[in-house]
Records
---
Amino acid sequence: MALEPITHVTGRAVFVPGDDIDTDRIIPARFMKCVTFDGLGEYLFYDARHTPDGDPCPHPLNDERFAGASILVSGNNFGCGSSREHAPQAIYRAGFRAVIAESFAEIFFGNSTQLGMPCITAAGPDIRRLANALENRPDLEVTIDVEADLIRFGDDAIPGEIRPGAKHVLLSGHWDPIQDLLDGLPEVEATTARLAYMRES
Amino acid sequence: MGKSLFEKVWEAHAVREMPNGQTQLLIGTHLIHEVTSPQAFGMLRDQDLSVLYPHRTFATVDHIVPTNELAEPYSDPLAQAMIEELRKNCADHGITFFDTNTGKQGIVHIVGPEQGITQPGTTIACGDSHTSTHGAFGAIAFGIGTSQVRDVLATQTMALNKLKVRRIQVDGQLAPGVYAKDVILHIIRLLGTKGGTGFAYEYAGEVFDRFSMEERMTVCNMSIEGGARVGYVNPDETTFTYLQGRPYAPKGAAWEAAVESWRSFASDPDCTYDDVVHIRAEDIGPTVTWGINPSQAVFIDETIPTVQEGKTESDRASIEEALTHMKFAGGEPIKGIPIDVAFIGSCTNGRLSDLKEVARYLEGRKVKSGIKAICVPGSQAVSRIAEELGIDQVFKDAGFEWRGAGCSMCLAMNPDKLVGDQLCASSSNRNFKGRQGSPTGRTLLMSPIMVAAAAITGQVADAREVFDLLVPTASA
Ligand code: SF4
């Protein structure tokens, strides 16, 4: 059973500059005390968006001009740090449907793909070009063409790249693997039977 | 041609190739805790799925437990809700839960090995990035996200791409005062926080051959800080000796068979690696981080870099960002910087040998007045043995707070937090902005002995000078 294929993501975008933006910055740990992911979006980048007293401070996500953006753009090694899915969930639940960055941390990349939120890499200078375009025209529509490895905005376009495995699952609607994993259950039992430590003692 | 441990374990657990080309990999052992599992159980309920092999999942509670408040209900209602949710999910699905009243509760990466659940030649997953710790036993252990926790609960498998293997070989003899923590901080400093992306790290060489299991765990624990999702050490006699007699280790005839099978998983001498890195133990010194990621580190006798020292534009930008957050000028010696808080604990360095080693030197010393110093055993078992040995008293006499088991000040999900821009000498694994609870709080990662030296002198100090470590001592 396949899900909806994800071939394109279109929307307005916001640039959050910086390299090595880690999961603690994406969603500070104190907001992870929850038993569901609902409501996490509110705390996205909380510490960067607020003063120590809790007042909003200048941040692209607090900038009215970028309100409603659904594509997040950032630097190198985005999402490094913890394996917690709270980070991509917070991004997703804040309304984002794709992330463009120079590179991604591995677990973040996998977690996001599994949510159906494509992560596309682009070269640093290209990202700066996109960022400049957004600064000049915050309402610019950005389209990520998953199949063509292309990020289009206005009359411009930059090459983007999605790892072949992730691209394949997005385009074929297999980004959430649960159904495929369940389909393999007979083989799971066979593998389990071969391993002594899997026996119930 | 021979095979690496990674390949052997992968092959033994590969269920099938999935339609998308990924491997469906059997996860033999699943560890869960209160932070990343409730949402996964929620997904099971929503999607009408059940837990396939409840006997292969083990639960503990660590991140949110207050370490200075043992009775429930906890003063934080959210923490109380999370522990209750885990209790209920475990009871509903027949999962073993090392609850706070069992004497076995603690940080998940300390409990698994301690109970003998972590075994060589197995695959392990846990919704926590420091799951790489378990690789110390020659297991392939993955930190996973919550959706994957759901996948493992429902199917005991995950969809994965095979990793490449990099052997990191450390030969020679570590100098006195240089610990496992310094080894891994040094590796991350050399290879960077992204260096391990796509790789499993195989740690090997004379230093690892001599290391105890606890030292191997300290190194494997921080693999993820170097970008490697998996890190492991080949199993050997040290591994088997550690496991023998532990509650979940095989017994009797099954023990002999298990050891034989475990031995066969070790990398073959003639196997090839995707990459090999050689490091000389003599080149490693006591290491301290000065920045906001674990690769931003220097030896204790070095100076903090200046922005100009960055080789590329992006290096310079990261140094600048780190210096700004850390409130350092750049160019000053790391040694002598005054600290506010000293924290010994976490899944990196909250094990018995860590506390024992520090206690050896702490005897008769006092924490400098004005410094908040806390010691948090990684598990109830660690704290019980430490108390039997009188280690708790040594810490208390020195002026440390002695706490109950948990993650404590490693991250800000319980009452232990930095305040304002406090500077913390910490034996934990992450120095990210805000990690220890205050957005402006500052963390210096170092070995537990260096934390103790900082606590006593009130500043970043060379433990070798403070404790006269320059004479070789028997390894702990
Ligand atoms: S001690 Fe720290 S790193 Fe380890 S599991 Fe707890 S919070 Fe995570």
---
Amino acid sequence: MLRTSSIKTLLENTLFIWMGLVLVLAIGSDLILLPNWIQVIGRSHPLLLHFPIVLLLLGLLFVWIPGLDQKPDVRSIFELTLLAGCNFAGLTVIAGLILVNEDYDKEVIFWHQWSGIGIFYLCITIYFFRHLSRSLLKPSSLILAVGIMLTGHWGASITHGEDFLLAPMQEKESKIPSLAEAEVFNDLVLPILESKCISCHKEGKVKGELRMDLIEGLKKGGKSGPFVLAGDFENSHMIQRIGLPMDEKKHMPPKNKAQLSEDELVILREWVANGASFNQKVKEIDPENKLFILASNKFEAKKTYNFEAADASDINSLNNFFRTVNAIYPGSSALEVSYFSIAAFDPNSLGELRKVKDQVVKLNLNKMPLAGVDLSVLKEMAHLEEIQANFTDLDSKQIQLLSSLENLKFLAISGNPIDKTGVQAISKMKTLINLYLWTPSLSDAQKKTIQSKLPNTTIDFGFDGSGAIFPLNSPEITFDKMMFRDSMEVVISHPIKTVDIRYTLDGSEPDSLTSLEYSEPIWFRKTGTIRAKVFAKDWIGSPEANFQFLKSGLTPTNYQLLSTPNKQYRGKGVETLFDQIKGQNNHTTGEWLGFQDEAMELEMKLDPNADYSELVIGMLYHEGAHIFPPASVEIKGLKNGSWKTITSNIPAQSKKVDLPRSRFLNYDLSVGGYESLRIKLNPVKSLPKWHPSAGSKGWVFVDEILLN
Amino acid sequence: MEKGEFEQGLNFNRRKFLSRLSLGVGSAALGSLLIPDLFSGKAGAEDAIMDALPHFAPKAKRVIYLFQNGAPSQLESFDYKPLLNENIGQELPNSIRGDQRLTGMTAGQTSFPLVGSYFKFNQYGQSRAWISEIFPHTAKIADDICIVKSMHTEAINHDPALTFFQTGAQVGNRPSMGSWLSYGLGSENSNLPAFCVLLSRGSGNGQGVYSKLWSNGFLDATHQGVQFSNSEDPVLYLKDPEKMSRDERRKMLDQIASMNDLNYKEFNDPEITAKIQQYEMAFRMQTAVPEMTDVSKEPDSIIKLYGPDCLVPGTYAANCLLARKLTESGVRFVQLYHQGWDQHGNLPNEMALQAKDVDQASAALITDLKQRGLLDETLVIWGGEFGRTNYCQGKVLADNYGRDHHPRAFSIWMAGGGVKSGMVYGETDEFGYNIAENPVHVHDFQATVMNLMGIDHERMTYKHLGRRYRLTDVSGKVVKDIIA
């Protein structure tokens, strides 16, 4: 039967055992080799330490209860609590001393260890001298409490890191470097080690004897071997371990801690594959390499600007339809300004940008008329990096002003006249990374000068048109109608205004030297063909454009068809032949009269007072559709009451299937004096042998009859 | 209108709706008809997302998409396959073809004879890219472009493939890429639309383009692509009638706006504000567009660079020049369509002509942007909707053959705007049929374009009829390897 008193005695006695063990372990730890199963007891230190903290602090509270001596029951609880606390303290200290044998750095442990031992002895002292006066008890309880807290704090620092307690309050100033300056180890690899590894591999807590917080530590490696070996994945323990499956014991980071992300794994592996250098800069890596891609995403995409953002209302007030002012991406304090609409440009509006002069990083003034405009506000923009001012009529003074901007990295001033002073000014801009200077006003020598003076700048002089000879496109011939009554104006034009237009009216091919030069519209007063070409220096001459114009000056007083056209191709009857509308190369449009079974017979009464000299018949030839030139043409004229044959001939026949085309049959009437005319067109009765449908009936299609 | 008023208006709407609810559930359905935006999920949540765009610092500010409509053959342009030349007429092995479906046109063929390129290839630039002889100007800028040879898609015919490329799904009714960008980023220059479309026609076998490809889908109508016409007057009806002065026009617009405003106060229909904004933008466009489309002042070297066709409205070269001017003036997304690449037959002849149409001007665009310092912030894309087969459609003749549609592998190129220059990405197998390395799906391409513009393609969504839509639909991975 265990009575309280016997438990108490037991516990008091065990205290001595703990004290002895503590002494042995504390002083003689170097001389002792502890077997592994004892190390397990050491591992229970983080578990055990909670008990003495609670029990001792609780016990010490009792000291402060007034009138404790008068309450024996409460007093006995006090004593029991304190006793239990002391016992647990002892166990904790022993476990801690065993744990220390593992990989801890002795210096950091020092304070925690000795203050822990100190607490142990102090609490035993307080216990055994508990009957002493209150005046001693109270202060010693305070000292013990403080001691417990300090020990606890130091212990936490070991486990979690120095700044664990106050970490949330600290502001991490992580300056993201630019891609040009970034270093592989310091800016890509180290941040990973710091966030995922160093908490267990640093001064004070050196798991696996690997210190990652010092470069020497990384170079030295740990218990199992080297941390990394350049280019050697097999023997780089870090690489091995981060690649193990999660369930493997040796997998790093440990299962319960934050794991490495895909990108981080790539960074670490590529770093080793590329030689595990501590000095290499990112820009030295091959751009195809995944590491470079990751790095550029990280450093370029989020180029941060450190200046204060402008007032939102200022930015809003500067935005209108012709100027936009906005952040280069959401959340950035840097602003870009763009101008649009030449007609609405207000030179004073540049001055309005003073409100945001510290934030403007990019300025787009392309095509704005800047001649004579005061650009001095640009000098006040401390962070201006990019200016686009193509085709803005800049003068040399303005260019000099631009050249004085120190932060400028990107300048596009194509299309502006640049004179000698301009060249000098541009040559001084050593800080430029990109320069766009496409303009015809620069000579080759000047271009060379600029290039040599700015060795670090990528300069694009653009395409100046030299070395390329291309053919021009044909001119355009515009006219009212293809058939005209008295006269018609014909205009030849070409989109390039500076070319030389040459034409002929006599049917010959135009050339650049002897043909007529076009300067004003041409008047056609009779039927004729115009052929035109354009020529220009540095160009190959264009293909030809040609047109045939028909004068239909005279009309018969009366006309009638003696035969009927085919039902499907009646058009508007005989009117179709005199409507002065040229049919298109398609027989179905209704502008053509078609005859198959019957020949076309037309009788016209002529005006006795008019002087008829020629007859033109507009025909359509389309062998594929069985439309052929007439097999024969008969033209008879009525003179003095009798019909005389003027012409009876066979026009040129088709030899093969060709594209549909319109042609004219011309007949001379100059003999004159006819009162009426009869025209008969006989269609081909049977298609020739070469035709796919040889033997079938042919057609004749007419659209216009013209008399001049 | 003040935002506060607007919100109040919406609240008013909701109150009205709820009061109508008292008339019965049936009227609730009616309510959605009377107040169309009630169930559209506009405002509110979308605003929060809108405010945060772009999601991160963009590399490109603008896009020019030179779309080659009809599908140019990659085997005659950027994908050099000498094996095909060595084995002309041989059958396409089944192991290579696998289970690729065929179009109706070649499904009936009993044989699939391989045919190699009629044109010679050479290597250019630091990347040693293979480019065929019909693209000499593109070959000269090989150091500025990134050729992606491993594009692939699922669609096998033009309409679904075009729709897929532009809207992210083979079914229609979705907003196009330009509309998404207009919705997300707006136009830099508020005097011009954010999304412009220019069409041109080549001499080859053409397929149609239709306004579905630049439609705004379910997004606001202001995000629609604006098609410029091919005449001297690119934007029709923009000019005031002859006797009307600008002041009179202004007065007229003010009157109309006040009437529309009255309507808006009663119904709070966002379409009304959209309409007022469109009128205002048209008014500003009246000054902005003429000064921008004026090509008469272009220097000689520009005309030589693009070719003299650039002054003839309606040609591809003129559209390229106009695209550069639009980009310079801050238009967010300019899309060109050049039709005529569908060479099912007569490929050598037609393709040479098509290439001649586009080669010089496309290369000129890159050089022109570069010499103005604009290439770094402008993304230029050149490509079609799928590729062409390595076997011949129809009979193989020494100098004439055709190719059918091939979705499994094709090539495009990109330049500027944060894309690596002088690079070739992706590889196809020796037969030019399957992808061997680094496949890039249409959704991956779209995700990459979004990424270069500073947008996370998974985060920019729009809720419509209960589902959150995005350009890349449900897939798409940013191709980080081609991003500089």
---
Amino acid sequence: MTTVAMAEKQVKMEERIVDIKNPVLSIQDLSIAYNKDKYAVKHVNADIKKNAITAIMGPSGCGKSTLLRAINRMHELYPDIVTEGKINLHDDDILKMSTIKLRRKIGMVFQRPNPFPTMSIYDNVIAGYKLNGIKLKRAERDEIVERSLRNVALWDEVKDSLMKKGTFLSGGQQQRLCIARALAFQPEVILLDEPTSALDPVATAKVEDLLVELKKDYTIVLVTHNMSQAARISDYSMFMYLGELVEYDKTKVMFTNPRDSRTEGYLTGKFG
Amino acid sequence: MKSDKVTKQILFAASLIILLTAAGMVFSLIMGAIPVFKEFGLGFVFSNEWDPTEGRENYGALPFIAGTLITSILAIVICLPMAFSTSLFIGEYFRKSAVASVISSMVDLLAGVPSIVYGLWGFYTLRPIIMELGLSPQGYGVFTSGIILAIMIIPYATSLSNEIISMVPNELKEAAYSLGATRMEVVFTVILPNARSGIVASYILAFGRALGETMAVTMLIGNSNVVPDSLFGTGNTMASVIANQFGEADGLKLSALIGIGLLLFIITALVNWIGKIIIKKFS
């Protein structure tokens, strides 16, 4: 490689990484392998901006869910996982924190709504406290439940049926209940793994509006296979392909002027 | 088209034969039991007299009903902690691992061991241990039978409940983990509440197996026709008294044994029915 080409490559690398001041999360040279030779995430570097929505896009199998799950270490539920590199939450290395503390600071919402079917709406919201054996006074619990349900604009819909099972709600309501459950601990970051892929368009719109509302108080990282969703609600976008973070930029910039031909190909529907 | 019709008829005939056989069995049990119920009425079920002496014959099934229920309850109590931990081990902690599949096939193997083999093992290995411990002078009795029964029903209690435990959706476990739960907390607040009725049903079905087990119990229970006076006392179960005495029975005594058979049939059918209702409600 000539020096000119190397210099060019250097510039390109730097261009891909957006400059974010005082990031909440800082992912540094992160690689994840499910087994020794099969890397799902390769050398990812990215800072995540506070009180913004960052979308991670890419075709299925590109490693976007694995990257998201690494942020609260849910990926470690797979037994033979190998994680290299670093993720910092402010100045703490999350790989060295206890997962219990970490997951209270970084909440998660999944693809399909998964309220606990044996619990009431009320108990679902407070489930994190119950699971961790944290004892609360009745009034405190009531307050947390009301606050969390108001946060997801579900309070008015369910306030008279708090003791009913969460599974009686519609799909969209269930997903908002799951978001409320994640909010109950007042985490700093909320991770969402394709949260609307099982919802109809009306319910999807409600969840999207909600996320835009929530970014005032929380930092949101969202995996989505839906490009228009990323375009609608995200401030920053990552495009991943075959485990690599190909491009990371302000959403507006990436959608109007992608730098990498692979990003362009994906955004214009040539593959994915 | 025509072969379809023929197949259908053959299948129908085969199922009909099974239905008729079952109905016939129930019918002959009832017919055989009529004399003893005519003689003693419902007292047959609640009396604890068992006197075959000619001239003052008196038959009551209570000692055997009691023996059956006590040994089976004891068996389920002993089996429960073992079956429960085994099914958690196979169904959750080591799900899909090689260790779990080895243990799971060992458990299934236990189900295939003939009753008489358990009886022999109990007679020559377990009974001397009970004697050694001074629990009972000859090692026979309700306690010894309960232990053997417990071992025999572990596979039934385990295989169904581990399946139900492993069926608890992954997304629910993940939800709990994402809230900072430890494995133990996931087990007790997510897995067990979701698998509860299925686990209960599997123990009920195992209990149903214990009620009817005959051979091993007959070899170990001591065969005395009284309500057991203690946990280590001897007794007889409904199945074991039939196995012991049918050979030399005729007349009223034979009818009494058939009557006990009918009661046993009713109790086990009832228990299985309850278990199946719970499973149905669960799935």
---
Amino acid sequence: MQNGVKNNGDFILGVKASIPLVIGYLPIALAFGILSKTTGISIIDSFLFSALVFAGASQFMALNLILIGAGFGEIILTTLLVNFRHFLMSASLAVKIEGNMKRWIPFIAFGVTDESFSVLSFREGKLTKEFTLGLQLSAYLSWVLGTVIGYLAGGILPEIIIDGMGIALYAMFTAILVPELKKSSKVLFLALLSGGVNTLLNYLNLLPKGWNMIVSIILVSFLGSYIYEEKEVKLCEQQ
Amino acid sequence: MSSNKIILILGMMLVTYIPRLVPFLFISDRELPKRLKGFLKSVPYVALGALIIPGVFSATPIMPIAAIIGIAFAFIYSWLRGGIMVPVFGSIIITVLMLWTR
């Protein structure tokens, strides 16, 4: 009983932690609903895009490609490239979650997004399945509901509010990162370097869409693995 | 025409879901080489850097400075006080106000 109460508490904490994600997802999901309507796809398909794919950038890209008449094969391949960064994020999360979550891994894996990954990675202490699922479920529902509302109701929010809300996810990423920057200059170095590499790769524009970020993460994390080497021993001792 | 979109959607779902799932199946509960562990522990910091920069500079394309001021607030506030909610809502308000005055 006591255990159940504690777990419920964690679920609610997860839902609370999802508020910035919900705020950030809503305008994007509304925009996706609106755009999918103007692209001429049905509301069922628009809903299924968000409910089954659950990956913002690739969904917008798909609409674009549908509009210019691209083949399904091309759209699916581009989706793979755009979303492959989640492979790295899942790998990083897999080290952090506990063994007893196994049964829930199909759901937790489905809910891995840039945003849920960021919150979960920097969650202090143990990462319970209740917290994880509370965060992910709430974020997921806001994405799916936002899509449907956008499709049905169109521009219910003034454009200026939607534009301004575009800052929400960046602000959340920043608020997650800053306390870590304060703790360690290595973190500052790694984060700035990967931002710099990503900017450079975007500028050069040589790689397929989505791979600038993947290459930035791989290169700089590889460098980070050398930096973390000494700290590793201490971390192991604590556990 | 609408009916065959489901094939596209299922295809997109598979290629999105599989990369999200596979690492959990292979990495959980296993002792990893030190170097790999260091790599995976760096990923969150590094990913955040790449998620913020350079995207934030074009978050409000009609007026890039609005997003930059908004994010500057989030940065300074979380540096001084921490927390998530105030930086997020504060930066939204600032950005909206900036766009308003345009």
